[in-house]
Amino acid sequence: MNDCMELRKEDGMSSIHIEKISITDLKTDAIVNAANKHLAQGAGVCGYIFDGAGAAEMTEACRKIGRCETGHAVITPGFRLPAKYVIHAVGPIWMGGDLGEPQLLYSAYKESLKVAKENDLHSIGFPLISAGIYGYPLEGAWQQAIQACRDFLEENSDHEMEIIFAVLDDRIKEIGERYFTVVDKNGGLIQEELTPAQVDAIQQAQATLSIEDMKMSTEGILEIGKMLKGEMTREQYQQALKENYKAK
User: What is the CATH architecture assignment of 4-168?
Assistant: First the structure.
């Protein structure tokens, strides 16, 4: 895999990427801190961001704000960080999934992006919120992250936004890439909301087809992706490709 992979490009301006980089090294307009409700310096990503910004300055800025509820976000200067601002988003602690955790995690991303737009920012770096010490399962964490970002871009097409997920762990990065992309034989990256098993089925099915069979439009691949949500088998997928999208 490349160290930087584009997952989705909404139009000529806005995009979503996964990049293998420390979030404190991003030179975006803002980076997002996986914060706690008290906006206090914590461990993991939060600790690195405070240290990179200057712990004393960031602590004082957060003290003036006071508190941020789960699913919400607030903004401070970036101080010594390359990013101009830090948006502090509070994700949920994983308690099994029945206490609104998916909705709260989705909201943490959407609120961060809303804050960025309100401050006329056009590039933002995210960690995978709640997936560390808060224990959110990785696949579910990626699902909420990407869905929230996709929805924001679709709802705010008038506002250019580059979204980067800064990930250092190869396993976490791979899960993000596999869960949300299908790679066609011509090198295109097609995003769909597919399960890991469905992605595997697509890739294995594609491996048995010729280049001629795979000469299809992006719209065709996306349609197949939608059909797969209805539990399409590998054989049905292959047959649909050959019957409906084979180059004439």
Answer: 3-Layer(aba) Sandwich (3.40)
